[in-house]
Specification:
With about 290 residues, the chain is α/β, with parallel strands linked by helices. The protein is about 40% helix and about 20% strand. Helix 1 packs across helix 3 and helix 7 runs antiparallel to helix 8. The model has no long low-confidence stretch (mean pLDDT about 95).
Length: about 290
């Protein structure tokens, strides 16, 4: 982890999941997210303490385990407040909801792991009366009520609204809860004017235009692949298998629930857009293209 200064009051800790740091005065800071686990939380605490700062609060962009994994240890040691938006508050307080939601039932023990199940923390609902110098805004699509945060230094923390070229090239699919809202968020990002932008898994950058197009093109590519494959009726498991084989991905428990949930979101999007339909035959739900 490395602490990088971006403005008079704004820093970020470069990490697998980037952490925002905002100084509210000479001694106190707010964090934006807390990393993926207890060890990340310890490292964040060490970096902050080395600067002589106290953590007064954590703003949660969304409740995925790699963004709230350090919450508990940081809150236990500092008694800081944690803020989250709407449904994200519920998932952050009760992290079992993430594993259960992804699996669609009670999660079996192999997916009750730190990548999908963080520790519980006490959370308050984020409101418009955040401290002076910080603003939050909706970035729906990747997860239920994800937000971004803008600081007084004109720095934008963009959570998981954009994925890197490296991630897209290697995995092709990235988790999306609501495809339509994800596309809407990409359109929103296209109109942002800021000094520096920090997606959660990409280094700080002054220009996100290429990233936006890269993400948009990959979403459209996956839509076309699903439509092409569903010229003849296909069940969900067949579609999932096809996508894994098309992109040469390796199935495991985590990938099954993450990619599986994402493919279901694509199917919901295409059905709501009147581009596919479904039927039940031989006790199977089959998807078939209408107009792509």
């Amino acid at each position: 982890m490395e602490l990088v200064k971006l403005g008079d009051k704004t820093y970020y800790i470069k990490n697998a999941t980037n952490i925002g740091v905002y100084k509210i005065d000479d001694s106190n800071v707010y964090l934006i997210d807390s990393g993926n686990d207890k060890d990340a939380g310890k490292k964040i605490l060490k970096i902050v303490e080395e600067q002589g700062w106290n953590i007064k609060g954590i703003i949660t962009t969304h409740s995925n385990a790699d963004h709230i994994g350090g919450n508990k240890i940081i809150q236990d040691r500092t008694d800081c407040k944690i803020y989250a938006n709407n449904i994200e508050k519920c998932f952050t307080e009760y992290p079992i909801l993430e594993s259960a939601f992804l699996y669609g039932g009670y999660p079996f023990k192999n997916i009750r792991n730190k990548f999908l199940l963080a520790k519980e923390s006490k959370v308050e609902l984020i409101k418009n009366n955040l401290i002076d110098g910080l603003e939050f805004f909706d970035l729906k699509g990747h997860f239920f009520d994800m937000i971004g945060v803008k600081t007084s230094d004109d720095v934008y923390f963009l959570a998981d609204s954009l994925f890197s070229e490296k991630t897209i090239t290697k995995y092709h699919l990235f988790f999306i809860y609501d495809v339509k809202e994800f596309i809407n968020t990409l359109n929103y990002l296209s109109n942002l004017n800021g000094k520096i932008f920090i997606p959660s898994h990409i280094e700080a950058t002054k220009d996100i235009s290429d990233l936006i197009e890269l993400n948009r093109n990959k979403v459209n590519e996956i839509i076309e692949k699903i439509c092409t494959y569903c010229i003849y009726p296909k069940c969900f498991e067949e579609i999932l298998k096809y996508i894994f084989e098309e992109y040469k991905l390796i199935m495991n428990e985590n990938q099954y629930v993450l990619v599986g949930s994402t493919i279901r979101s694509y199917l919901s999007f295409l059905y709501d857009e009147n581009r596919i339909t479904y039927e039940f035959k031989d006790n199977k739900m089959l998807w078939k293209v209408l107009n792509c």
